[in-house]
């Protein structure tokens, strides 16, 4: 029952957080947060369920964390970025 080892979930969360650096968009960071929370729940003995339910809870947590991150750090509604100078201008 290696999936029940919380350290594996925490290592997976760190890998997903590193993937977020290469592919930004808040999704992998939300997934990393959900996997980290599930790993902590397993380490602390707070998770009595099996793997299928753990994956469902992790998926729901991913959506919630992603929405929270987009709400807090995302672009504001109606905000338009206007470029006034080009990087190639001298």
TrEMBL record:
Transmembrane annotation, as ranges: 6-23, 53-73
Record key words, sorted: Membrane, Transmembrane, Transmembrane helix
Domain of life: Bacteria
Protein name: NfeD family protein
Species for this entry: Paracoccus versutus
